[in-house]
Description:
Elements: H1 3-96
Amino acid sequence: MGSLTKDMTRLCDEIQTLRTERHELNKRLADTTKARQVEVLETRAAFTGARNWKAESAHTSRHNFVDQLKQTVAGEGKSLRDDLAAARRVWGKLRAT
C-alpha cells in the first residue's frame, strides 16, 4: 500500500474514533442532565413540602391565637357586663333611698 492509502486509512480510523467518543460524550451529558433534573425535582419537592408544613404550622398557630383572643375578649366582656350590672344595682339602691 502506498503512503496516501495508509494516511487515508489512518484518518478514517481517527474520524471513526472521534465520532464514537463524541457519541459517548453526548450520552454521558444526557445521563448527567437527567440525573440533575431528578435532583432539582427532588429539591423542589422538599422545598414545597417544607413550605407547606410551615404554612400549616403558621395557620394553626394563628388560629389558636385568635381562638385564645376570642376567649379572652369574651371573658373581659363578661367581666365588664358584671361590673356594669353591679354598678346599676348600686345606683338603683342609691336612688331608691
